[in-house]
Amino acid sequence: MRQPSVSARRVAAVSVSLVVAAGAVACGPKDNDAKSTGGDSRPHKGGTLNVLNAQPQQDFDPARLYTSGGGNVPSLVFRTLTTRNRENGAAGAKVVPDLATDTGRPSKDATVWTYTLKEGLKYEDGTPITSADVKYGIERSFAPELSGGAPYLRDWLVGAAGYQGPYKDKKGLAAIETPDARTIVFHLNKPEGEFPYLATQTQFTPVPKAKDTGTKYEEHPVSSGPYKVVKNENDGEHLVLERNPNWSAATDAERKAYPDRIDVRSGLDSSVINQRLSASQGPDAAAVTTDTNLGPAELAKVSGDKALAARVGTGHFGYTNYLAFNPKVKPFDDIKVRQAVAYAIDRSSVVNAAGGSALAEPATTFLPNQKSFGYTPYDLFPAGTSGDPAKARELLKQAGHPDGITVTLTHSNSKDFETSPEIATAVQDALKKAGITVRLQGLEKNDYSDKTQNVKTEPGLFLAHWGADWPSGGPFLAPIFDGRQIVQDGANFNSGQLDDTSVNDEIDAINKLTDLDAAAARWGALDKKIGEQALTVPLFHPVYKRLYGKDVKNIVISDWTGVLDISQVAVK
């Protein structure tokens, strides 16, 4: 997942395990939540679910969306070959079939993947969904005018690098074959054992060629899911969905589709969203948010109210906030200096700056602390929760800086509690104790992205963050540490500009594995190996807390999405 500063669309790819505050019991699709609400609170069909969001659901076209596992609101309209398992916690990090009968059948070397569509699949107009529609949906995602989706297919599919989409090249992609109406075959440039994860991306949504209206398709995309679009105002600012009469639950084991109607309103101030969810009056009693978290001040208020606390979902996002070094900038070309910074960090003060322990957990590994990523606990520069300034000074002395050093820390001026001034100041204060004087350089959002993601302007030390496009170590480690992904003339995320043959080779070796548990163990070991080079200093993994209305039931938040799953909720 590209950093959120690049695009708000990436935020949909977060990963959380649900723990409901104040002892309330979170229920999955098969539970009835009677313990937490009393009476007959089993999920029933009917009613309107209201969604209150800050960011509009822009570019509501499966080609243009950057969502993993189908996203949330998009997942109600767009089905894909595979999807995420709609369960709480770690069980939700698994990939499962959606339109396809299974998660894919790989060739021996994982360079060819074959899928078979389920029988009886239909669009909202009753016409059958075919493998040719899936192929066409993928091909149109290559059209420049429909850019914005995940970039993997251009890299992975044979002969796809220069493809410009079906509007300019009607021959299509030879790498995707459709021998019959229910079979689709993908030919890849190299082994990719995680292709089933990629097949959850919305680019794998079927699109009927005859109904494709190009850039206007987002106004009324043809639904393959349980809901269809009946209104899309101001590019997703107000989105209304109603039932798709031709969707069949018999072909869809994942989406429950309890409400009759979904009303999504965006462009709201975050504080207003939380106020409305807190009050839970009128239509807001049946409301949720998919993009607005409780801040420190709001959380303090909510925590003191048992009724409100029982309506807060708490989760751990598969995401890491960290300090990034550019070893091409002195003094960070010396590993001892980088190690000194790692020892000097006071993670307790950083966590406090991020909102406190309720909203952030200290990190010593680059991979998030979830099994699906291959999390392997390690702390290569152990300094406790408050840092070890004495050890840091010792390392600086060994590096030839007995009187300390002065460095610049670049951060964003955005109030995001991640790369913002609060975090930068906490780092500055901690490093001062170790003899490291830190000058802060705050930049506006776009300037910050431009400067930190360009190899020509990348500073020596800056705040960064990363989340994966799916719950695995691959899309977490490769973009940051694979030397072949260093981009010289575009957005570069390999901040350490690491190009280590042994690391690159191990990434390739793991990608060949179709046993995802075995792959996870290898990703964890690789994380520790890379960590020895001290190219980053992991700071914290964010924790997310979100309110939902008092009449909302069947709360499911998985270790894949990190947000309440709209496809599971019911309203009173």
Automatic annotation (TrEMBL):
It holds the Pfam family SBP_bac_5. CDD domains: PBP2_clavulanate_OppA2. It comes from the Bacteria. Residues 1-26 form the signal peptide. Keywords: Signal. Residues 94-484 form the Solute-binding protein family domain. Residues 29-52 are annotated as: Disordered. InterPro entries: Peptide/Ni-bd (IPR030678), SBP_5 (IPR039424), SBP_5_dom (IPR000914). This is ABC transporter substrate-binding protein.
